[in-house]
Structure to design on (229 residues):
């Protein structure tokens, strides 16, 4: 089984967990006990399938490893369950603890990127100016906890689109909002008008954003307004 390492997020500092040494010790222990990959574990002649973020838990073994009382561990478990950091599935023989949102905070895709070869590094240095601009825009979509919109994206129109999605009972999550902004950035680079795309989605009652069939579609919509008679 891949041992590897875990990531500690700085938001734990904001939550004040480090000040509670028992809580921080137990939570760190849970992260290190959790599986990084899917595998089968045999417990009392029973095969148990564990997925990333899961581990077999026992109060007695946890108490011995952490040198904490069973009552302290029970109290911390209840706290972490209430905070939706983990969940427990208990049988008459053992318990499985699952770290909630493991795939978001401990994804191997984020931590085990392959090292670039010299050839790849050379290629990266030869990126065009447009690609540098696109990378910069993608990088700045999310700044700390706030989503930063590109300068060319009308904030009022974007808020209108978010309200539209909410009215359709398809409220934008943080991840889906970032994904939609990235699509607009890409389509803008291809020559499409982001404002037209958003307005069309709202006007037609669509839940998502869709690329126009052609680049002149948005121009055709308003062509009659300014044309000479």
């Amino acid at each position: 089984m891949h041992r590897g390492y875990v990531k500690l997020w700085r938001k734990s500092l904001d939550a004040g967990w480090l000040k509670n040494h028992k809580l921080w010790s137990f939570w760190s222990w849970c992260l290190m006990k959790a599986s990084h990959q899917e595998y089968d574990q045999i417990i009392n002649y029973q095969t148990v399938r564990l997925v990333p973020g899961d581990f077999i838990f026992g109060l007695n073994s946890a108490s011995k490893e952490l040198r904490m009382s069973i009552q302290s561990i029970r109290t911390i478990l209840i706290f972490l369950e209430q905070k939706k950091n983990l969940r427990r599935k208990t049988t008459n023989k053992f318990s499985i603890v699952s770290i909630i949102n493991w795939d978001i905070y401990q994804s191997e895709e984020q931590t085990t990127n392959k090292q670039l070869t010299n050839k790849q590094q050379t290629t990266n240095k030869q990126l065009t100016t447009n690609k540098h601009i696109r990378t910069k825009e993608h990088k700045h979509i999310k700044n700390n906890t706030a989503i930063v919109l590109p300068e060319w994206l009308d904030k009022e129109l974007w808020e209108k689109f978010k309200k539209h999605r909410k009215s359709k009972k398809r409220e934008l999550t943080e991840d889906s909002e970032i994904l939609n902004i990235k699509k607009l950035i890409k389509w803008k680079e291809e020559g499409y008008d982001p404002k037209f795309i958003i307005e069309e989605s709202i006007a037609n009652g669509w839940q998502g954003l869709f690329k126009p069939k052609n680049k002149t579609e948005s121009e055709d919509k308003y062509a009659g307004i300014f044309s000479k008679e």
The chain has twelve helices and seven strands. The beta strands are 39-43, 46-50, 54-57, 86-90, 95-99, 142-143, 146-147.
